[in-house]
Request: fold
Amino acid sequence: MAIVKPFKGIRPPKEIVKQLASRPYDVLNSEEARVEAEGNPYSLLRVTKAEIDLPKGVDEHSQEVYDKVVENFKMFKDKKWLVQDPEEKFYIYAQTMDGRTQYGIVGAAHIDDYMNNNIKKHELTRKDKEEDRMIHVRITNANVEPVFFSYPANKKIDAIVAKIVKEQAPEYDFVADEGFGHHFWVINDPAINKEISEIFAKEIPALYVADGHHRTAAAVLVGGEKRANNKNHTGNEEYNYFMAVLFPDNQLKIIDYNRVVKDLNGLTKEQLIEALKETFEVQEMGADIYTPAKLHEFSMYISGKWYKLNAKPGTYNDNDPIGVLDVTILSNLVLDKILGIKDLRTDKRIDFVGGIRGLGELKRRVDNGEMAVAFALYPVSMKQLIDIADTGNIMPPKTTWFEPKLRSGLVIHELE
Reply:
């Protein structure tokens, strides 16, 4: 069962929360972060991407940047832009997009659950990205940004959340610049906080990393370092835990994660379509954007036209949790077999476009000549993600895209 506990969150005053809360560090490059934080001294990007307060061109992984992280984080606390709650609490963080709201519990998960695979993963992590986040956790001594977890929906937790949301005004409630609503409640009742921990401990068999694999791995590794360096380690220290927002699986929706390719591997458009016909039913759909309507259906955009591609029966294995994924089918039958792309992680001929940008972004990148062809996929389901995590498998790269992204800065977890 899952270990999740309340913690003494560090939070902004409600008057500045909208200015302070920022998008995650990994969805913005340095220049985008500079633009987003311009004229806003409260932006947490000054902690998560502190290079924006240094001259342009500075290496974001340099000691100079890490020193600025420490300086800015201390300054935010000294100026009372971030203030610690006096008691341990759970929090509720809800997000609204396109008229749909999902409600998460903000708590502290245990590093042992990750090491024992009771927190289940579906992606591989890269050591360089882990190390960057480990440095950030070490120097701030905090989980400044949350990770995004899911858990099997539980009616008792649903009822607690529904009661608090109905009876208590949110501490924070704002619409961010991207148009998504962010709503945040503080659970002050110690009895309710205790009850939530007990439900997780008795009734939630596992947690699932939805988004934030590198932040999760980094938090666990730093916690392990602190254990090793503490001769008086008891197991109760705060560094044994890290901050997560935990959403019930039946409230989450994964959106599509699409592919664009720079060239046709020496083929003409006509040769590509003929090669596709070996394993797909190919139908021209015209100039209007065509969105895949079901599993194993793809859309392709090339030379001003959209095509519907339906994988033929027998070209995939519905009983294989990896083989049944549309990203696997596309990778095996098209990207590898026809276009010669063997490694999605390293091949420079392919790029990935989150579905939040819309299929118009695929069309734009082909029409402007940057890319030769684009492929849109039907989204992975939460059931597929959980099946893969439960069986110990790993999804291919760039398979899942969760939206809305969690805003950083609504609450922070210190490790001491």
